[in-house]
Amino acid sequence: MPFTNTNDFTTGRASPITPTGAELCSMRFALAMPVGDLALNTIGQIGILPARCVPVAVLVDGTDMDSGAAAMVLSVGILNAAGNALSTAAADGGAAWGATAAVATAFQQQVLGQPIVAVTPSDVDRKIGIAVTTAPTAAVAGTLGLTLLYRSA
Question: Does domain 24-152 correspond to CATH entry 2.60.120?
Answer without folding.
Answer: yes
